[in-house]
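Suppose you are handed a protein chain with no further information: no name, no annotation, nothing but its sequence. What can you learn? This example shows the usual starting point.
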Amino acid sequence: MNRPNLLFIHSDQHCFNISGCYGDEIVQTPHLDSLARSGIAFDNAYCPSPLCVPSRMSMLTGRHPYELEVWNNFHVLNSGLPTFAHSMGAAGYSPVLFGRMHSIGPDQLHGYSERYIGDHIANFPGNPLPDRGVLGPGSASKYISLELSGKGQSGYQVHDEEVTRETISYLNNLGLQKRQGTLDRPFSVSVGFMLPHAPYVAHPEDYELYEGRVGLPRKKAPVGKSQHPHYKEWKAHTGIDSEIPEKMQIRARTAYWALITRMDCMVGEILKALKDNQLDKNTIIVYSSDHGEQAGERGLWWKQTFYDESAKVPLIMSWPGRLPENERCDRVVSALDLNATLLDALQAPPLPMSRGRSLLPLLSKKNSRWDDLAYSEFCGHEKDFVQRMVRKEEWKLIYFLGHRCQLFNLKEDPEELHDLGEDPHYQNIQDELKHLVLEDWDPDQIFQKLQGKKEELELLRAWAKETNPAETYRWQSKGEMNYLIQ
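A reasonable first move is to predict its three-dimensional structure. Written in structure tokens, the prediction is:
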């Protein structure tokens, strides 16, 4: 078998810099750190959207959210659009998915040949919500998720433990086929984890690893004129516009660090099964996440902004004998580029309308030319929630419909503490980047489309509520899986 295998592990809501290999001195992530030593860790990888569904559907298709008209967690990806999985299938792979994809609508495969363990959420908007027991709204981007935090267990961890067991079983079966000489084609295994997504609730043994060690956020919330008006509105929208007790912040952050360690342990179990079955020699291993987590920095939590804690993602890629080991790449890349890179490596046909660019020439040092450019967007039904970011070289511009832009120089200000958006000395830079944002993206038109999609969604919810359509892939969350130890 000349073509490589693929093991793609995709987590949910992992802040890029809370890993040992990304510089965090507290968190324990030995398996991700080991993976980084065996390959390349990317320091400037951005998600297509700081929200689950649009980010994931963009990564699958290689297209921006506005091209898919998938902007929120209830929008349905057109089944007629070819995806990363379709391309692998066309190349002779039988791509298999375990766990999280977060696809909405009747198509729960989008090109995957097999899927084991679905999402905990409803396949259709309007179907019954998952039973999260006492944690209830603890997964939402609302203040209550900080109240419902600490020691205990979330059903999300139970889901991921089952995903891990099923993935290991599948790899063991592949190993058996290999030993019997019946493994006649390369494999493609994608693994979707829920962790470390809120609820900020972790098993006591994991939580206690960090108790007393994780402090308050380092970056203080801007106040007065230094606070961009959008974030003032966003904080009010999510209920975090008043002072959050320090004890609550530390409790939620401690649990988040613990959830990352628990997720890392599951990654380690899967990598061990791969090695134990001698399937690792010609296998591309990729770890990334759909978006980040702000964990209280600047007074913000969850995702849904374009600060690096939210819009930047960890990305680690290992391919023994083909990619350098223990290296870092500081070029600006996107999850759309990851899509194109993996298809190139697997010798699969490129997606016809993909915006992604293969990184292989850059990583193999055959061609160092690369445009340091990435886009991300976040669009909601309110006008000032129609937003887009462009990262070009050291500059980042954030465009808001109805508000002024933000501008940061990440070379001189990597912490994004000094907004240059109102500084006339940088007007030319702002104009250039604003042109890039608006070149193919019409915010007023998008806002109008979102109003129409809102009406469509209301009808689809009413339909599902009345007809209860069958759900083909759904993992059943049970209330008793969730508990909180006060």
